[in-house]
Amino acid sequence: MLKQAEQFSSRLNLWLTRVGAVALFATMLMAVANMALRPLGFPLTGSFELMGLGCAITAAFGLAIAQEQKSHISVDIMFRHMPRLPRAILNIAGSLSCALLFSAASWRLLQTGLTQLETGEVSETLRIPFYPVVWAVAAGFLALSLRLYVEAAAAGTTLLKKTSA
Questions:
Q1: CA-based nearest residue to 61, from 139, 6, 2, 123
Q2: Distances (CA, A) of 141 to 128, 133, 146
Q3: Angle at 91 between CA 105 and CA 10, to 5 degrees
Q4: Is-above-0.85 flag for pTM?
Q5: What are the DSSP calls for 36-70, one per residue?
Q6: Domain containing residue 31
Q7: Residue in 71, 57, 72 with CA at minimum distance from that of residue 141
Q8: How many CA atoms does the CB half-sphere of 79 hold within 13 Å?
Q9: How many domains does the chain have?
Q10: What is the Cα–Cα distance from 18 to 153, expressed in whole angstroms?
Q11: Cα–Cα distance, 95 to 102 (Å, whole number)
Q12: Measuring CA to CA, how many Å separate 14 from each of 23, 52, 130?
């Protein structure tokens, strides 16, 4: 079961990363087009709104793959000098606490998106609804939470095997 959860998480992270890359490319293309057209008197209306929304999606969709590949910043000065068992326990506790935090953030973002859908909140210039982007960020946080739960479960399984052997 753990193996299937790891595979599902990896496939989800890869898919989200690809969507995030498309959002990043579109955001960069829009920024360059706006910079090129503005001096000619043809600025792209709403480009700052779209770039902000695109950056939110790009960042949120890159979180889980960064966790999976350990391409984030970590400070392990104290961990390096700890015995293996306390280090493993603290690692599991850290993963679980982060997973709970991002699960709660995802849930809150889902609720915020529902409120924005009900109230009809839209962006100022282009009148684009915010809720799809808020839900996309919630999905990115949820994928990160899933990855953290999977990592905690894998570390716990490994720890149990080592202590029982």
A1: 139
A2: 22, 12, 9
A3: 60
A4: yes
A5: HHGGGT---TTHHHHHHHHHHHHHHHHHHHHHHHT
A6: 2-70+80-164
A7: 57
A8: 10
A9: 1
A10: 26
A11: 11
A12: 14, 23, 25
| Residue bearing tokens 């960069």 | 28
Residue 151 in domain: yes
- Let me know how long the chain is: 165
Phi, psi values for residue 127, rounded to 5°: 60, 35
Which segments of the chain have a pLDDT < 70? Answer: 165
Question: How far apart, in Å, do the first and last CA atoms of the chain sit?
Answer: 22
Q: What is the CA radius of gyration of the chain?
A: 20
Q: How far is CA 21 from CA 14, 26, 27, 51, 62, in A?
A: 10, 9, 10, 13, 9
Report pLDDT digits (tens) over 148-158: 999 999 999 98
Residue 75: inside a domain, yes or no?
Answer: no
